[in-house]
Each structure stands twice: as C-alpha cells, then as structure tokens.
User: Fold Esterase from Mycetocola tolaasinivorans.
Amino acid sequence: MNPDNKIDIPASLENGNAGTDLLATYWPSIIVIGIAILLVALWIWRARRDPDHASRRVRRGFLWWVPTGIALFVAVALGVNTWVGYLPSVSAVERWLSDTPPNPEVISNKKPVEGTGSTVLPSSERRVTTASSGYSFLATIPSTATDVPNSGAWVYLPPDYDKPGNTKRYPVIYALHGSPGSAADWFAGGRIDVTLEELIKSGQFPKAIVVAPDLNAGPARRSTEPLNFPGGPQIEDYMVKDVVGWADKTLRTEPEASKRIVAGMSSGGFASLIYSLRYPEEFGSAISLLPYGKPYSKGIVGNAEAMRDNTPLHLIRELPRGTKQTFFIGQDDGESLRAAELINEDLRTRGDISTMRSYPGLQHNWTAARTMMPYGLVWTAQQLGWDEKTS
Assistant:
C-alpha cells in the first residue's frame, strides 16, 4: 500500500473535537470577560449615583476591582487553555486532577473473567467494559530503572475486555506525553480513549489496549525528555523494560513487536522515534507527532556521545536496516517541519515504511496532537493490515 495515500477517518475525529465540551471553545472565556465588563459597569454606575468621600470610594472600588481582576485572569487562563487544548472537557480536568495513583491496581489477565466477582479491578464486583465501551483507569508501574521511582500510568482496556470467557489478547499503544507533562495527558488533552473507540466503531482500528506512563522520573511535571541521562535517571530503560514488561505481565497483550505501537507528542513524539529505532525488537511501529531533530535536555546537550546516540538521523544512518517497521510522522507547518521531512526521507532511504504528513494551521499543542492521532492510527493499521479480526 502506498504510504502516501489519502487517510480517511470518521468525520467526528477530523477537527480534534471528539470527547470535548464547552471547555474546548472560547465561550467560557467570553462569558467571564462579559462578567468582568459587567462588574466594571456596575462600579461606574454606583460611583456616579453615590458620590462620596474619596477614601470611601477607594475602599468600595477595591471591592469591585479585585473580583474584576480575578475574572480577567480566569478569562485569560481559559482562553490559553482553549488554544493549547490541554483540558478540552470537564472529564479531562477530573483526570488531570486525579493523576497520582494511590496504590497499584492489579488486573487479572491470565485466566478468563468469570463474571460476577471478577478480579478485573480489585474494587470491582462487576464488569467494567461493555460491548461498545472500554474502561480507563490509573495504575502504578514498579520501576527497576536507576533514579526512576515507581510511577503512574493511565490504562485503557477495550470493549469486551472483561467479557466472561474472553481470553483474547490485544495490541498495545504506548502513548508518551510531552514536556512538561504527565501520564494523564493523552487521556485528558489527547482524548486517546475516545479517539480509539470511534475508530473501533468505524472498523478502522482493532480493539487495543493503551498504556500512557508518567515519564518524569518523579512526582513533579518536569521540562525534560524521556531519555537515559548520563549519571542521572534512566527514563528510557523504565519505559522500554519496566512499562512494557508490566503491561505484558499484567494485561492480556500480544507480546510481540509487531503488535506494539509507541506514540507520542512533542518530546514524547521525539522519544517514540528514539525508542522504535533503538529497539526494533520491542516496537514494530511509531507514531511521532510534533517531533524535532535533536534533544535539548541539559545533561544530554553537554555530552557529545549522548547527543549523538539520541539524534534520530544518526540512529537511522547507523542502526541496521531491514527492521520492517512503520513510521508515521505528523507535523505542523512550523520550524520543526524541515527536521520531520529529513527524518522521513532518511527512513525511506533505509527501506522503512514511513510517511510525513503536514497539517498547516495547527500549532505545537494538544489540539494538534488530538487532531493528528487518528490519522496516525488509521495509517498504521492500514500498513500493517490490521482490522477487527486481527486482534
């Protein structure tokens, strides 16, 4: 199949609006600005009706201008959120706020679920998936990597995962957040569970599991890339060894590289290229959204060897050919477009199946990632020959 063929996706996913609500529009910001204008108008009206001593006017004015200032701040914050697309719905806010797992959740994966009293989730006495809906939850993934603590991950189980008697295994999409970011990002700003269910319903992608790990090497949302740092946290080891190992041990996965997609946006998109190129035995496909050409993190940039080993073009030219991997690269029309084009050209020269799709008008934000992801998933499924019978 020609990797540059047109990609058709459901109309509901074309503009990145699936799973969003009023928070994804500028209406909340407009409403709050309207409230601020109303407060100013009321203050002026009262001041003209009730001229008073200057000191009393100042005190009364303070009572009006403080809430007005707060309203304007909230309006700006809502407007920025709409532009970035990070919290496009109330449910996204809830997920972002509950991004720290209290305890590990254990999922039975080796035996068929027996209906009532199942151990799909330790707190559940009923099925959590249905024939048409999957289930998303927060888990803890233990770490054996240097300077990386046990960390959270959001997980999506596809429809009918815990259907009585179901022993089917599923492909896995590993979704990597940007920087700064957290495990919740692909389920909050990315709405990946909503996107995947739309594609499953349309028959354009098989039922699959999603694992979105926290790659901060600690509780804070840090501005760093998920790589192995010389003398520091080995975040890449945590993702490739611990996260993948946990998923294969805990979930009913298909534990082959050909059934694993590593995807991400921004620094997560950059890392998806690094991981797939360095570990073809682990990841058969990459969906790299909004990537760039070279690492930027302190500790990598100052180390020539680490810089070279974490540059996609170097890996493409130095690592073995013939990996039979697929690479989808999605980019806006900004300054990183040329870097994405060069990566795609070198992948094709090496003999890989790759495509680079540019989406003019989109920015380097979650609205863009949410818009591009369904194209990447459908393209990958087409190149791999996946359909509903595959999983």
